[in-house]
From TrEMBL:
A Pfam family this chain is assigned to: Acetyltransf_3
Database matches in PANTHER family: GNAT FAMILY, PUTATIVE (AFU_ORTHOLOGUE AFUA_3G00765)-RELATED-RELATED, N-ACETYLTRANSFERASE DOMAIN-CONTAINING PROTEIN
One Gene Ontology MF term: acyltransferase activity, transferring groups other than amino-acyl groups
N-acetyltransferase domain boundaries: 14-170
SUPFAM superfamilies recorded: Acyl-CoA N-acyltransferases (Nat)
Record keywords: Transferase
InterPro entries listed in its UniProt record: Acyl_CoA_acyltransferase (IPR016181), GNAT_dom (IPR000182), N-acetyltransferase (IPR051531)
Name of this chain's protein: GNAT family N-acetyltransferase
Length: 170
């Protein structure tokens, strides 16, 4: 399948690229951390669970022509988490997702990556109007959505909770 967005984006400190099979080991730092996943997958994953999540992100690219990027820290070469376009069948609309391992919080990486993804989407998919779909209790993620310029739009019931739709500006 031909992808409809660039397979790589570069920022000052990060390389955002399509995932590779070996990325599951770095991703496991996020998916096995109970603090990181409390508002997303809900419970720490085994190595096999992380591998399956990675397979779903690679598959997303195949099914939609776009998907989340592996965020690679330039200085270490490590994958710190996924940031990119995400639109599973049960989501209300396509979104910009972000999820970084706890060791990389507070460095501005998620903001830098999300802004690069939004810019890329505006340039390559102007018809796509992106949201971020965030558990209402996930205050750090809500703060990040606001920091990158997204605006609260509405609340929806989802996965036994209230989730917020933040609309990204074009």
């Amino acid at each position: 399948m031909r992808f409809i967005i660039p397979e790589q984006i570069e920022t000052e400190r990060l390389i955002l690229r399509t995932f590779q099979a070996s990325d599951w080991q770095d991703l496991h730092a996020y998916y096995s951390d109970p603090v990181c996943i409390q508002y997303t997958v809900g419970k720490p994953l085994t190595e096999g669970g992380t591998w399956r999540i990675l397979a779903s992100m690679i598959g997303h690219w195949q099914m939609r022509g776009y998907g989340p990027y592996a965020v690679v820290e330039r200085t270490s070469g490590r994958v710190v988490g996924p940031v990119g376009l995400w639109y599973p069948v049960d989501w209300p609309e396509p979104e910009i997702k972000w999820a970084l391992a706890q060791d990389y919080w507070g460095r501005g990486y998620a903001c830098e990556a999300a802004m690069a993804v939004n810019k890329m989407a505006i340039e390559t998919l102007p018809e796509l109007h992106l949201i971020s779909f965030i558990n209402g209790e996930n205050l750090p993620s809500i703060a990040l959505a606001k920091r990158v310029g997204a605006r609260f739009e509405k609340t929806l019931p989802f996965r036994k909770g209230e989730w917020h739709v933040y609309r990204h500006q074009r």
